[in-house]
Amino acid sequence: MSDNASRRLPPPWSVRPRARTWRCGPAPAEVRRFHAALPGYLPTPLTELPSLASELTVGRVLVKDESCRLGLPAFKALGASWAVHRILAERAASGADAGPVVLVTATDGNHGRAVARTARLLGQHAHVFVPRGVHPRAVAAIAVERARVTKVPGSYDEAVRRAAEAAAAPDAVLVQDTAWPGYERIPGWIVEGYSTLCAEIDEQLAAAGAAEGPDLVCIPVGVGSLAQAVVTHYRSRPLGRAPALLSVEPLAAACVLESLTRGEPVTVTGGDTTMAGLNCGTPSSVAWPHLHGGLDAAVAVSDADSARAAARLASLGVSSGPCGAAALAGLHTVLTGAGGEERRTALGLDATSVVVLLSTEGRSANPHPVADH
To answer: Taking CA 108 as the corner, what is the angle to CA 106 and CA 109, rounded to the nearest 5 degrees?
Structure first.
């Protein structure tokens, strides 16, 4: 099917009308204080793009630009740094050997680099398992952090399995950003780390004259850990406006969309996608209750959609890789084309709405070519 023909069909989409009434507990307040004390910490920009608001007939569009977070080109350092801090503090409190540990993880790129950087800065070791499809420059960036890198000729889920096996060795700890029954505490700490991003958005929106908060937040989703953090942030408030929350995934690996459609977590067989960091086949078990309860809608987008969105953001001065640009691709897909007005209504959007896009990585994090626009 041609790209033009596909635009005449409704996109893969799920909507959940009661999500804005779902509630959960908040993230720990000390996470933000921890990050604020780290060397080099600064809030990442929240950049307003009036031309996008005009094109999409909403009031304001602002992009949370994670292209430089604690010296790395993606948001993942927030979760890795907090989780490793908790792991090492717990080991010290238990009287464990004070020698270095091996922090083991699987990654589609950004999380593994963040764990490797954190390990290097803290005098620990890192062993990172990388599935097929990750750009060679992203793999090289992990190795530069002095991590041991093992390439896995299989999917992300297979790389996670291999990492879990390796972490059974003495003085090794699995630092994985997805959870499953029996392994949920450390992934939960990683999710807590992402709460700093949401706290920054609150402050930045207030400074920009939108203290009441956004009407819609668009979230790129792999296993759902960042989406869990966003749901936690906005659904833990007893009062005030509850925004709509939209998850965006690749067509090739839309495990959250499929799970929401079926009403239970399922595994999908992923394909190839330039959105490598979102190429995940199974939702995180610790994230799933939040995704099922608190996400208003989910949509899947093509690599071509993501490439066009990255090019559009680049033309406006925002560096965004394929995963980060998925947020704009999802917004554009939902608000345009066949059924666009119905989807706009389902999300409660109008010409005054404030939309926040989470651009989770810069172009250098996942250096696929940017398409012409």
So the answer is: 100
